[in-house]
Amino acid sequence: MNEVLKTIKERSSIRAYTDEKLTREEINAVITAALQAPTARNMQEVHVSVVGGDNPILKEIDTDRKIKMLASAPDKETKAKIESNPNNFYYNAPTVLILSADKDFKWSKFDAGIATANMTLAAQSMGLGNLVIGIIYDAMYGDKKDYYAKALDFPQNYEFAIAFAVGHKNTEKEPHEFDFDNSVSFI
Length: 187
Description:
By secondary structure, this protein is an alpha+beta fold. The protein is 42% helix and 16% strand. It has helices at 3-10, 24-35, 56-72, 76-84, 108-125, 137-140, 145-151, 180-183, and strands spanning 46-52, 95-102, 129-133, 158-167.
């Protein structure tokens, strides 16, 4: 099987990581894959903020995320589930990459998604676990939006697009199943 297709087939979202830090070379390889992604009109407007898993800003974002989730929870059962979840949004990965993009360029979020797809495949091909993260959206666009943008060193006029946890796996997980016939239409 083609190596790229094999990597795609084997990749899954990992939610448990070892304490082993990534090397600068590993981090740079994943980031390089993101930066090599195509962008609309070749704007190259996606920015990557590299955050160590022990950085206090991640705990602050996670606390804000939980507060916002609790406030919008539809019932007591959902609130109890949120409160009892022991995991943070990045599952203690040693490195979190937070992508931001130009808020005035309409294709920025798509370009960040393409960059993230490249990162997932690069990390998988290197034997690293990874997780694409959108659950912090409400926190990143809440009343502390400007504060987080500054703390994460977003360029001027950039805003949160997506986050990405990466590290050495502490678990194995089978890739998700899919129904090809139900998901595809040939016209």
